[in-house]
Predict the structure.
Amino acid sequence: MPASVRTSHTHTTRQGRFLVANSPSTAEVDTAGLVSIYLPLVNTYVLDGWAALGDPTRRTIFARLAAGPSAVGELADTMPVSRPAVSQHLKILKTAGLVIDERAGARRIYRVNQDGLRRMRAELDTFWNDTLSAYKHAVEQPDTTNEHSHHVATPPGENP
């Protein structure tokens, strides 16, 4: 396209209109409506169980489900957040593999996903075992950086 030619058109969506203008050096987009249209399609990160439980509300929901299966409405009745908020938290916990749901008539009943919990437990066991091994290694190795590091000071007035 020659440098002097410039084309543009408008695109209309449910959220509004935006202008797409093309020039040889740049494409300009009014993204007022564009971002909200495509944002649900963006996968920004994969949430694991640890990150999902980093939120105190999700930890509370997870703890309640650990005590027994529950529907969204039952959970929402005992929470300081709305039912839609509880549904979003459950969706995140489900995506992280920590809860599963099953249809029971018109409701969905959520429960702890034992496989997801086992995976988290295995990670925690790995961390714990690595920490204990490092501690054992540190205790069993003599400190060669300071030869007096294991010397107990004699209180004043006492002979060593």
In short: The beta strands are 7-13, 16-22, 27-29, 70-71, 99-104, 107-112. The longest strand covers residues 7-13. The CA atoms of residues 7 and 22 lie 5 Å apart. Residues 7-41 form one domain.
